[in-house]
Design a protein that fits this description.
With 196 residues, this protein is mainly alpha-helical. The protein has helices at residues 2-27, 36-39, 51-68, 70-77, 80-111, 148-183, and strands spanning 115-117, 120-122. Keywords: Membrane, Transmembrane, Transmembrane helix.
């Protein structure tokens, strides 16, 4: 049963990561702590893709809850292998969700924020790619919302980091689940008869 205990520990690790993804995504809707920008639709389009809420959040809660309840599944279906196969399927959902969160966050980070500049509302760093991230003096192009570049860079970087951790945890469980489902847990001491 040590593989079930390992899966439970991975489930406990995924819960705060998924929660933090949701919080980071929600905070992107309120730059400078104001609600006016979301009301007037003055946000980057990528915020509306809900990469942290749907991808890194809800989709990752599925494997987290599955990992935490695998002991009950193993007891009801009678085998740990069956529970491990279920954990692999749940991990694939988590893998897709965290991958989605990572890709959208990376694209949003590369494009930069949507902000008010001397030329009006636009994405001033869209054509620069990642170069603007290293040219802090150019961040002053964004007049409103205040500190929007720092806000977006910080929260999107957090989403990138969290989704990477979620992705790795799901991969670890896929490997563990496949090994335990196919090869049987090595935690058990099984006696084989040489005469059989």
């Amino acid at each position: 049963m040590c593989s079930l205990g390992f899966a439970r520990s991975l489930g406990f690790a995924l819960l705060p990561l998924a929660t933090c993804c949701i919080v980071a995504n929600v905070l992107l809707f309120f730059p400078d702590g104001q609600m006016d920008f979301v009301k007037d639709n003055r946000l980057t389009k990528y915020v509306w893709y809900f990469m942290g809420v749907g991808g890194g959040g809800v989709a990752v809660f599925i494997p987290a809850i599955t990992f935490l309840t695998m002991g009950k599944c193993a007891n009801s279906c009678g085998t740990e292998s069956c529970a491990m196969c279920g954990s692999v399927l749940a991990s694939l959902i988590g893998l897709a969700g965290s991958g989605y969160c990572f890709i959208i966050s990376a694209v949003a980070l590369l494009e930069g924020p949507f902000c008010f500049t001397s030329l009006g509302w636009r994405s001033p760093f869209e054509s620069e790619g990642p170069k603007y991230l290293f040219a802090r003096d150019s961040w002053s192009e964004c007049i409103q919302p205040g500190h929007i570049v720092e806000w977006n860079v910080t929260l999107l970087s957090i989403l990138l980091g969290l989704s990477t951790l979620e992705f790795l945890i799901c991969i670890v469980q896929i490997i563990s689940g496949l090994i335990n489902a196919v090869c049987r847990p090595c935690c058990y001491k099984q006696e084989y008869s040489l005469n059989a």
